[in-house]
Amino acid sequence: MSTPPHEKPTAGPAAGTAPRPARSGGRATLAFPASPPVRLDGDGRIDADLPCPRCGYLLRGRKPGTACPECGREIDVEAQADPLAAGPPAFRGAVLGGARRLSVGMALLPLGVYPGLAVATAGVWSLTTKPPGPPEPWLQRNGRLFARWFTALGLPAMVAAVAWSAWTLASRRGVGGSWTLQDTALCGTHALFFIGLMFAWRHLYDLAARADAPAAALSLRKLWRGYFRALVAVAAIGLAVNAADRLDLLFRIGPRWRGLVAPATALLLLALAVGLWAWTFARARAFRAALEAALAAPRTAGPRGLQPPRSAG
C-alpha cells in the first residue's frame, strides 16, 4: 500500500539550492500566527502532528527555522510555553467542561435555536475562564473578555429583540418608525453575539494549540475566516435588500418584484445559517475531542517536556 504524499519522507531541496522563502503575508491577520505554538522535545524538534501551512506535510521531528522537506517553506513556529495539561485541575476542568457544553449546544441548535445557543454560551463562558499564571498580554486578555461578555450579553439581548418584534406583530403596533427600530434591534443584537463568537474562535485557537492539537487549532482559524466571510455576506444581502426597496420607491417596480425579494433573501440567509452551523458543529466536536485527549490523563513535566506519569511499579 502506498504511503500518503504528505507522509512520504523526501530528500528535501536539492543540494546547493537555498530553500524557498515563505510567502509574503505568512502571518495571518488579527494576531493569528502562521502556525500555532507546538510542543518541542528535548532536542528542540516538533513533537506534534503539525501540518505545513503550504503543502500539508507533517512536520513532526523537524526543527523550527529549517525548511519543509516537501515544499521548502520555512518552518516558522514557536515553542509551546504553557500546555493545558500542566495547568491546575480547576482550570482544566472548566476548559474541558466548556468544550463539552459548546459541542452539546451546537448539537441542540436544530431542535431549538436559542436553547442551543444558551448551552453553547455557557460553554464559551467556561472556556474563557481567566487562565492561571502571569498576566495575559493585552490583546489576548481583551479578546478573551470580548468573547465572554459579547456572547453572554448578546444572547438575552437577541431573545428580547425577537420577543419585542413578535409582540409588536401580534398586537399590530407596527406603525410609524417602529419597524426601523425593530430591524436595528434585531440586527444589532445578533451582530453582537456573532462577533462574540468570532472572538471565541480566536481564543479557542490558543487553547487548542496549548492542548497539543495544532490541526484543531488550524481548523478554528479557518472557522474564524468563515465567520468573517459570512458577516460580509449578510451585510451585502442587507444592502441589496435595502437597495431593492429604494428602487421600488423610486421607480415603482411593483408587487411582483417585492414578492420575490423576501423569499429569495430568506432562502439565502437560511442556506448561509445551515452551512455555518454544520461547519461550526464539526469543529466544535473536533475541539472537544482534542481537549479530552489532552486532559484525560494528566501529564508531568520531565527532562524531555510533558510526559505521562509513570506507574509506581
TrEMBL record:
Residues 10-29 have a biased composition (Low complexity). Keywords: Membrane, Transmembrane, Transmembrane helix. It comes from the Bacteria. The chain crosses the membrane at residues 102-125, 145-167, 179-201, 227-245, 257-279. Residues 1-38 are annotated as: Disordered. This is Uncharacterized protein. It comes from Phycisphaera mikurensis (strain NBRC 102666 / KCTC 22515 / FYK2301M01). The lineage of its organism: Bacteria, Pseudomonadati, Planctomycetota, Phycisphaerae, Phycisphaerales.
